[in-house]
Amino acid sequence: MESRNEMSASAHLFESRASAATSRRSFIRLVGGGAVLAATGTLAGCSAELPEAAVQPWRSADRESDMRRFMLAHALLAPNPHNLQPWIADLREAGRIHLNCDSERLLPETDPFGRQILIGCGAFLELAVIAAAQRGVSAKVELFPDGAPADQALPKGSRVATLVLGEPGSATADPLFAQIVRRHTRKSSYANDRALPETLLRSWADTATRFGLRSGVASGAAAMDPIRRITREAYEIEATTTRTWLESARVMRIGPGAIAANPDGISLNSPMVRALYTVGLFDPMEVPVKGTSSLQRVMDRWVPFETASGFLWLASPDNSRAMQVASGRAYVRAHLLATAAGADMHPLSQALQEFPEMRGPFEAIHKTLGLTGSGETLQMLSRVGFATEPRGPSPRRSLDALLRT
User: Fold this and answer.
1) Could you tell me if 103 and 157 are in contact, meaning their C-beta atoms sit under 8 angstroms apart?
2) How far apart are CA 93 and CA 259, in angstroms?
3) What are phi and psi of 104, to 5 degrees?
4) Using an 8 Å Cβ cutoff, are 187 and 12 in contact?
5) From residue 339, how far is each of 21, 53, 65, 188, 215 by CA, in Å?
6) What's this model's pTM, rounded to 2 decimal places?
7) Could you please report the per-residue DSSP string of 67-108?
């Protein structure tokens, strides 16, 4: 939900492998000094900030005058798995927006049934509804007008929803609108000693109920330590399973040129990573192996992800496609509420994934959170709290890239 992605920690996993691949002294020795010194010299002092073209959608959403374009310019800022932005918006019918799932932007290995993809679509829909209300227009969400995809099939090309626009004056502004362009997924360390505001906890619970979900916040060592252990194990499984690691590696964008050309996927832009990649000392297609130092470096990067004031979870009474979309709508509202309160959120989705190797952590996290009812499904798990360093927005494709007119 950013999140992997943006709804994910994969970018940090890759950066840790690259930056810790070898010391400056050893790789100067390995290549005789010249190539690496040339690369690091060229990049020395370079900013890790993303290219302006990749983050422009965050700055330009309010400039759209057309009603539907205004809605979609805000909706495309939604968190989504691996930042793939799996959205096609069909505007060929007046007064409506048909949201289709882009069949080329799926994660068949880590998200084999498209559950997380549909959560991302739900977040997209909710931001569109909020943006419409800002201009006094209601947007009715009609889910799966052509029928929902099968439970264990990827939603390739599915029409997820149709948004039907109301008349002017049919809606009042949503107070969360202003947070849409401020909401970012912070993947740095969080303060461990700051409590979350009680008003925020209550608003999260109310939001979950509004969408037919159940929520809770695990705080304190006794509640958080088992979650830390399970999520760490899940992270290692994803990293050491060849096909799931490579699924992430294939959507990496390394350096400002690649990020500007493809403002989606996993962006790696630190000067050291770019230097190592340039001289061939960082190969993202190399899968970590258990018992090796490369895996240890990957796991070392997980440590900051165990810092938090608590863990927020959202669970649905069943795992229907409608509930998956509702979970995305509830999650993005929860994140907007956190942003308004000065708090941060970072989804940890690995243990919720449904590929076979993840069965152990999947069952363990449900049991730990008391989700043992028939069909009850954990849809989102996020660490929440207060980031100790700022992070900017994730790249976004342009509005025109996702339109069908």
Assistant:
1) yes
2) 33
3) -90, 0
4) yes
5) 35, 24, 26, 16, 18
6) 0.92
7) HHHHHHHHHTTS--GGG---EEEE--STTEEEEEE-TTS--T
DSSP structure string for 146-209: T-PPPTTS--TT-EEEEEEEEEETSS---TTGGGTTT-----S-B-SS-PPPHHHHHHHHHHHH
Residues 330-375 pLDDT 10s: 999 999 999 999 999 999 999 999 999 999 999 999 999 999 878 9
Structure tokens at 285: 């297609």
Q: Which residues have C-beta within 8 Å of that of residue 82, sequence separation ≥ 6?
A: 4, 5, 7, 8, 10, 107, 248, 251, 265, 266
Reading the block at residue 384, the tokens are 């929440």
Q: What is the pLDDT of residues 365-385, one digit of tens each?
A: 999 999 987 899 999 999 999
Measured CA to CA, the distance from residue 121 to residue 4 in angstroms comes to 14
Give pLDDT tens digits for 273-331. 899 899 988 889 999 999 888 888 889 989 999 999 999 999 999 999 999 999 999 99
- φ, ψ dihedrals at 329, nearest 5°: -65, -45
Give the helix ranges, DSSP H, for 115-156: 115-134
Tell me the angle at which helices 10-19 and 242-249 cross, rounded to the nearest 10 degrees.
Answer: 90
Angle at 54 between CA 53 and CA 60, to 5 degrees: 70
Q: Which amino acid is at 32?
A: G
